[in-house]
Design brief:
Strand order of the largest sheet: 7-12-14-15-16-13
Shape: globular
CATH superfamily of the largest domain: NIF3 (NGG1p interacting factor 3)-like
Strand content: 25-35%
Number of helices: 11
Structural class: alpha/beta
CATH architecture of the largest domain: 3-Layer(aba) Sandwich
Low-confidence stretches: none
Number of strands: 17
């Protein structure tokens, strides 16, 4: 099965919109023409030169990676470092590179942290640090007779979702008035005459990245040629998007049993952890990749353990011996991300060929 690259990008955008990525990130299409047809994808954590070689050998024309091979601007292409060599080789061999990074970290359902929780047999309860500025409220005035049809169109476009509930809306009846001019083509009334009729104000919540889609659906479903509406950016945090997750074990484990379970299930060569007063582990916070910025959030959430990576020496002290702080390694915490890539593509395009990269890109080795 052949796909346009932009179709693949759109499938990922439905799960992890690029609007959710952190400011320092560079998720998205890094190399390649969005309109080009591709037939086989190599899924990986890092799009290194060795991974590009594997893609060439296996006849893959797109590499889908978690980490962007390019974070900052490239000023030279002389092959002087691994980033330049990977990009040059991809371009010379007509291989596209797409990255889905912190936007996939920042979604609660179907994201990196939920995948870690599944690997550990944990039940996800919510986001550790919910995201601000992700929600807008749409208010639109519509004739009473057209209220339900408009709601259905808004819901179908992705509006009205709150946690485990969908098709959420508020409606308030009122009296609307308008007077068409001579250039208008009104659905109701005549030019030059003021009309008064019963209308409803419908309000729904909309993720900010769906604003254009919901606006289009609203205009197409509305009977008026001029749609009276307003958008409001909310300060509400979203419990569906944000950094890290809070989870629970079915049954509490002793500290050492949990550490052993963690090491085995995540395939770690080693687990670094803090001394702490915690003896049994039930509530666990998770952040794939470098998550030390969430240590304070984990402590405030009252979890027993926090699983992440890339914790610096002095950051271990921040746990104040009140939290079992576990560093399992960056690669180890994110290596199951390619399972998510496979699930996203197979659910949307079941006949599209995907291959898990065999190249181990972990730059760290262990003497055991």
């Amino acid at each position: 099965m052949m796909l346009r690259i932009h179709e693949i990008v759109a499938a990922f955008e439905q799960i992890a919109p690029s609007r959710l990525q952190e400011s320092y990130d560079n998720s998205g299409l890094i190399v390649g023409d969005p309109n080009r047809l591709v037939g086989k994808a190599l899924l990986c954590l890092d799009a290194t030169e060795a991974v590009i070689d594997e893609a060439i050998a296996k006849g893959c024309d797109i590499v889908i990676a978690h980490h962007p091979i390019v974070f900052g601007g490239l000023k030279r292409f002389t092959g002087s470092n691994y980033v330049q060599r990977a990009v040059v080789k991809a371009i010379k061999n007509d291989i596209a590179i797409y990255a889905c990074h912190t936007n996939l970290d920042n979604v609660l359902r179907g994201g990196v942290n939920e995948r870690i929780a599944q690997q550990l047999g944990l039940t996800v309860k919510g986001v550790l640090r919910p995201m601000e500025g992700a929600l807008m409220k749409l208010g639109v005035y519509v004739p009473l007779a057209d209220e339900e049809a408009l709601k259905e169109a808004l819901f179908a476009a992705g509006a009205g979702n709150i946690g485990n509930y969908d098709e959420c809306a508020f409606a308030l009846k009122g009296e609307g008035s308008f007077r068409p001019n001579e250039l208008a083509n009104p659905t109701v009334g005549k030019p030059g005459k003021r009309e008064v009729l019963t209308e409803t104000r419908v309000e729904v919540l909309v993720p900010i990245w769906l604003k254009a889609r919901v606006t289009k659906a609203m205009i197409e479903a509305h009977p008026y040629e001029e749609v009276a509406h307003d958008w409001m950016l909310l300060s509400n945090v979203s419990n569906e998007y944000g950094a890290g997750v809070i989870c629970e074990l079915g049954e509490a484990m002793s500290k050492m049993d949990f550490l052993t379970h963690l090491k085995q299930q995540m395939g770690c060569n080693a687990v670094k952890y803090t001394k702490c007063a915690v003896e049994r582990v039930k509530r666990v916070a998770i952040c794939g990749g470098a998550g030390s910025f969430l240590i304070g959030d984990a402590m405030r959430a009252g979890v027993d353990a926090f699983v992440t990576s890339d914790i610096k020496y002095h950051e271990f002290f921040d746990a104040e011996e009140k939290l079992l702080l576990c560093d399992i390694g960056h690669y180890e915490s994110e290596k199951y991300t390619i399972d998510l890539f496979s699930a996203i593509l197979s659910s949307k395009f079941p006949k599209f060929a995907t291959i898990f990269a065999e190249t181990i890109t972990n730059p760290i080795d262990y003497l055991t």
